[in-house]
Amino acid sequence: xxxxxxxxxxxxxxxxLRRLTETNLVQTSGYGTDPYTLSAIEKIRAATHxxxxxxxxxxxxxxxxxxxxxxxxxxxxxVVSASTGHIALHEGGAVELFGHKVVTLxxxxxxxxxxxxxxxxxxxxxxxxxxxxxxxxxxxxSHPTEYGTLYNHDELAAIHDTCRQYGMKLFVDGARLGYALxxxxxxxxxxxxxxxxxxxxxxxxxxxxxxxxxxxxxxxDAPRHLxxxxxxxxxxxxxxxxxxxxFDTLFTDDLYLRISRHAIDMAMxxxxxxxxxxxxxxxxxxxxxxxxxxxxxxxxxLSGKVLYEHWERLPDGRHVSRFATSWxxxxxxxxxxxxxx
Length: 341
Description:
- The longest helix has 22 residues, at 255-276.
- Helix 1 crosses helix 11 and helix 2 runs parallel beside helix 11.
- 40% of the residues lie in helices and 17% in strands.
- It starts with a strand and ends with a helix.
- The chain has helices spanning 14-22, 35-48, 61-72, 86-89, 94-97, 114-126, 153-165, 177-181, 190-195, 226-232, 241-250, 255-276, 296-302, 331-340; strands at 2-3, 54-58, 77-82, 102-105, 135-142, 169-173, 199-203, 213-217, 289-290, 293-294, 306-307, 309-313, 319-324.
C-alpha cells in the first residue's frame, strides 16, 4: 500500500529526531522559556525580517486558528472566510465555540476574491441594520488554500488594503506555508508575507515536525495577555521545548524550505504523470496537493493499493480526488503509481 492521503502521515524529519534525542535529558524551564524556543524565535525573526516580531508556538492548526481569532476579535466580532476555508468546514465549529461567527464568501479555487470581499463589506455597512449583526473584524485566508492554490502578491495586497480600510485584521493560515514558499509559482516570500498581514503562522505539523505551528505577529503587536488566552484555550504546552527544538531545527540551514521543495518536486512529478496518462486535473494546483479526476476504472485499479482522498463526485460519476505529497514522499511511490495506472 502506498499513500498520498495527506502530508502529515509520517512522524518527523530525521534531523528533528536527532535533535530531540540529543537534547532529551537537558533540563529546561517550561512554557516556551527554554533556550531552544528562544533560539527558534530569533531564527524566525531573522527569516521574516521582523526583528520585533512576537512568535508563539502552539501544538496544532485548529488550536492556532481558534486561539488567535478569539484573541484578536471582540465578543461581537465575526471572521470572514472563503466557503472552503478550514475554519468554515473542517474544524468542528472551534471558532464558533468561542463566540465568533464565521461569515463565508464564495470560494474561487479555494481563494477569496478581493473585489467580492470589498463589495461584501461595503454592502454590510450600507445596511442600516448592521449594528444588529455580528461585526466583521477579521479576514481569514489560507496560503496555500485547501485546494492547493496560491494568492499572488497583488491579490493579498488588495485584501490587506481592504482590511485597513475597514479597520479589520488579516490572518493568514500557513498550515502548509512551506509548500507555498517552495512552489515555483510563488511570488510571495516570507518577508513579504510578514508585511501583508497582521498575523500568520508557519506550519510545522504538515512540514516536517511531529506537531506545532509558529504563530507570528510581524509588528510585535500581539494582544495583551496572549499567554493567558492561549492557556484558556488549552493550547499551552508545559514542555514548550518540544516545539522549540523542532522549529529551531527547521529554521537551521534552510531545512524548512529544503524539505518543502522535495514535496513540490514529488507533486509536480504526480502532475506530469496524470497529464501523461490523460487524466484531467480539477484544479491546476502549483503546490503539494494535486486533484486528478478519476473514472471508475482508475478507482478500481487503485483500490486496496493506493491511499488518497475522494474529494467530490462529479455529475458524470467521475471522482475528484486529492493526492498529497510531503517532505518524506519517496520517488518510488510515484513510480509505483505510474505502474498501477
